Amino acid sequence: MCLFACSAPPPSPLLETPWREITWGDNSKDLQYLKNFQPQNEEATIRVLLYGPVGAGKSSFINSVNNVLQGRMTHDCLASATTSDQSFTKIYKTYKIKKERRGNFYPFVFNDIMGLEDGNGRGVRAEDIKLALKGHVKDRYKFNPVSSLSDDDPGYNSSPSISDRVHVLVCIYSANAPQMNSSVLEKMREIREAASDLGIPQLAILTHIDSACGETEKNLRNVYRSKHLKKKMGDFSSSLGIPMNCILLMKNYSHETQLNSDVSTLILNALRLMIDFGDDYADKL
């Protein structure tokens, strides 16, 4: 019998077992798969378009992928380290990733895009992203938040090739963000619907999982045991309509000066899935 007032221990913030399995430790198999990857459609370079609110980590994700594939820290895609409600990225830029041999690149590219912002006349316009999906936006086009790209603009590509088109659309969103603004959410739904009409496969990546969950910050391998992050994923899935099996949790390289195996594992898991999805779509074109 308890002689003093007894209280039950607080519930654990972690599930006993992970609800999604991840193979931690050796990343060599995934790295080799990507090094050997060749698109099924020989005419295509797989194009991955990243979109999402300002500050979600789109540019940092490209840098993180480059880090893992280069096997060292890199800084090819400029990213802002400060919090702002305005997009750091202003132009539509294609990022290629070098392979070991000089002049040789991986057969997939990433496009960073201006962030979605609250209200009209701010951030990238949903109409411009729709044009990018079809390959109509030329590389280095500078976005105009006030007016969309028109077919008589020098930045308009009137005859897009298979490689100019987007083969997989990836939404980047911060797991540490407050409730999504209704106008930004509406733009994201509009973009999703346009991609769905084109048959383009879609994924979502929730970033900043270390700052969103203390248990994951202590040990990244708790990522799919975290009750908080699982709820975040469920809420995000309900808001945007992306199935749970198409949402991935990830931490970008941010303060690190050396590669970390666990960080790289989550990046490679996401990268393999998006490249496979994009490859299957490109093969149908």
Describe this structure in words.
The structure is a single chain. By secondary structure, the protein is α/β, with parallel strands linked by helices. It has one domain (45-225, 247-271): 3-Layer(aba) Sandwich (Rossmann fold). The protein contains 8 helices and 7 strands. The protein has a 7-stranded mixed beta sheet, sandwiched between helices. β2 and β3 form a beta hairpin. α2 (58-70) crosses α8 and α3 packs parallel to α4 (182-198). The longest helix has 24 residues, at 261-284.
Write the layout of secondary structure elements.
Blueprint: H1 28-36, E1 46-51, H2 58-70, E2 91-98, E3 105-112, H3 126-133, E4 141-142, E5 168-174, H4 182-198, E6 202-207, H5 209-212, H6 214-218, H7 227-240, E7 247-249, H8 261-284
Parallel strand pairs: 1-3, 1-5, 5-6, 6-7
Antiparallel strand pairs: 2-3, 2-4
